[in-house]
Amino acid sequence: MVARRKAAVVGVALSDCGRVDDATPYALHAQAARRALADAGLDRSLVDGFASAGLGTLAPVEVAEYLGLRPTWVDSTSVGGSTWEVMAAHAADAIAAGHARAVLLVYGSTARADVRAGRRTGTLSFGTRGPSQFEAPYGHTLIAKYAMAARRHMIEYGTTIEQLAEVAVQARANAALNPEAMFRTPITVDEVLSGPMIADPFTKLHCCVRSDGGAAVLLVAEEYARDCRTSPVWVLGSGESVSHAAMSEWPDFTVSPAAVSGRLAFERAGVRPAEIDVAEIYDAFTYMTLVTLEDLGFCGKGEGGAFVAKGRLRVEGGELPVNTDGGGLSAQHPGMRGLFLLVEAVRQLRGECGDRQVRRGDDSPPRLAVASGTGGWFCSSGTVVLGAG
CA-based diameter of the chain, in Å? Predict the structure, then answer.
């Protein structure tokens, strides 16, 4: 019986991101993977666990083959944007149980380049089988579902469109500090509100950007962490939850599954939301950030609008810096963005973020971070609490 071991993140990296017209998704996977291994200072021969989703008919088999890996532990969980937080939780469990010593999580997508080249359209479709058959005939798009949820919150709690716009404004302020963000020019609430309508109440700047890019995260058992060139970031606790597939089965549009995954993650980590120094939250739309902050316990239900309106999400002067790289609203969003949340959280805890680095009162880097991913239309959630080494 192998004793349970702690799991540490020792390598993180992004591939080239933003506008990448000359690479395949496989190439972006490989680029991110090589950079994450180099970041950790470990050879790929140590990797015996592999997790990937979103590419290939037999993901992650095809991607592992492309990378020259022959893993003995694999995960192909696919639950949208929360996939990577869920996979990180599974990887940490596998390491703790002795089923793997080093697990590599990799993602890559050319979502923007594919549209530009005409290889696909800009419309995301989940098909018309199963529960979707009852909604698809009415043109209920992915964006419309989020818009409906946002409108319900506005009706229930008096949340204003200006408060939702503040999420975009503060994300852009953080992106302005990130030289790798796609959009860095500051924006105002008025500019958000005056943009073209996408799905009421969302105008263009309430919605995430479309980009290319990839990311990779390497987790290892504690006995290997000492061999790495980076300081370990420990997985302290995690939680996962699914809520619904059909909108008609969603009990409350103002509550996301992060209410469950967050509670589990904090309980298992033995920390409280008030102790968190930095939060990386999935933000395909401004409402996602607001409601996830509520459901993770950073403010009460219905208080998200007032919480974000006071500039709390900013790196500079914010009480709880959120999406410190600019998030999906401004930095990059190549599809299932959850892995990017983990990369940024780890970099913040290691104090490697340059002008966007969050500092505690004593000028030290953050000690605790949370990454919370959302999948589908609030259908799934994965939350991971991380601690500095």
Answer: 62
